[in-house]
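Researcher: Re-running this chain for the archive, since the previous output was lost when a drive failed. Same request as before.
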Amino acid sequence: MAFPIPVAVADLTSALTEPQWDALLVVAEDFSALATEKLQAAVTALQQIDRRIGKETVLCQTDVAPGGRLVLAATGPLHRDYDDVRAFADAAKQAVTQAKAAGARSPLLLVLAPQTKEFAQAQAVAYLGACQALWQPLEGREALGESKVEPVHQIGVVGISSAEADYLNAVEAGKRLARDLCGTEPERMAPRRFADYCVEAFAGTAVSVTVQTDVMQLNQDYPLLMAVARCSLQVERHKPAVIRLEYQGEGPIEQTLLFAGKGLVYDTGGADLKTGGAMAGMSRDKGGAAAVAGFLKTVALLRPKGLKVVAEIGAVRNSIGADAFVPDEIIQSHAGVRVRIGNTDAEGRLVLADLLSHLREEAKTAVNPVLFSIATLTGHAARAVGPYSALVENGAARQQQLSAQLAQVGDVWADPSEISRSRREDFSFIKGRSCADDILSCNNAPSSVTPRGHQFPMAFLVAASGLDQHALASEQPVPYCHIDIAGSGVDGGDWQHSKPSAAPVQALAALYCR
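Model: Regenerated structure tokens:
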């Protein structure tokens, strides 16, 4: 699983003449204060004949740059209230795409950013943005060869230390795993092949992997998950798997992170079949599980001390057929809660609820536990907050300002999110309607047109998993944050064709691994 390795470059002047580099990418608001006199003189001369410089990304030929290739990528204004560090990621994507097309395989990256806290990680963000642009789908790499479709093998980042390069290497490795798992078609990444890819990715690392595929055991331990998977059992290769990833850092454990990941490798909608072309792109409904695995990959490489991380991923296919689960069924969750099915296309919350119930049990004896679920859960999240991750937390997490911390660090690292509140209306919405059931999984309208369509599913997750027993006022509160990445999970919003973004791996790594 190759990707452009970040290389720390201490001195630009000497690097410009080193044969290992074959292009220079300059990302800046403008090009009036470059690092060397020769480079500044060359750019000033180029600006006299090309008025695009400073307005758009331009590839120039000059003897000053290695390989004769100079790419000048302007970020645009950075002083407005709404400007943020993503401008550097966007510009770097354009710059590296042009450099690759011109034949560069080993470019230098020079980032000139304002010396403010908002842009403190501009160099790192630019490198990670370049890697996002260079990633190509796993199926393409396997069919054509990685070296052909991804020829850029290293990026020299001017001004970072070796330790910073190691950190970026670990983050990009995690993001790449997340993109591969999320962005791969549903047969290549069927449930057990998803599990196999995880086993391979963590082989020889500090993260242990166990995979449960025994159908009888899964029926006993994950009844809601298995309701979703029920129709898939008719096809051997579509049978489900629960993947457990566990990392324990050196020394006394100071904090425990527990993650539940929604891994719907394909979502037909089940009996409530997706129609009108809405099924295209549903192989990416495993983006939450992919992000969980990606974060664990970053943890495996950085090996933070005093931290324990446990994840459970439900890799499931929501198939349609004679044995599909249907609305009106009442299914008892792992936590003993009777759930009436409102719509079979609201399947992700069923998978997550059982995973969360298991993790909740572990949280009871864990050191400083924090619980997360990550999922491409609702169209409402994409409609409500656009290309941002939506954070919905319980009272214990809000008291710790968990979402606020994640959102703050995400702003600096170009992995932004929006904070939503969990309200009493959300819990009223999912209450059972009779003595036959305890809670309702959802209504029968699209989440995008349902009031509080991405907030009330968090209430369902809390109730169905038993987390309501660990509220802020309880004897044993457990901080819990649900992260809906339906809007942030792909770059550009096209779930069939856009590149997976690996959100929120970048923000989680910055919060817990730096």
